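INFO batch 0412 | record 1 of 1 | parsing
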Amino acid sequence: MTFGQKIELLRTQRNMTLRKLAEKSGISYSLIQSIIQDDRVPAKEAIPSLARALFYEDVEELLKLAGY
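INFO prediction complete | emitting C-alpha cells
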C-alpha cells in the first residue's frame, strides 16, 4: 500500500471529505489531492498533523510509507 492509498483509506473510513481533511490537518486541499493520487508526499514535519486529523496513532507507519 502506498502513502496516498493509506491516507485515502483512512479518510474514507472516517467519512471525511478532502476539504475537511485539509482543514483539520492544515495541509492545502490541492496537496491533499496530490497525496491521494501519489503525486506528492507532504514534508516530514506535516505527517503528524495529518495523522492527528485522521485520528490515526501510528505516525511511524505513515512516515515509512512516505519514504522517511
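INFO post-check: The longest helix spans residues 3-13.
INFO record closed
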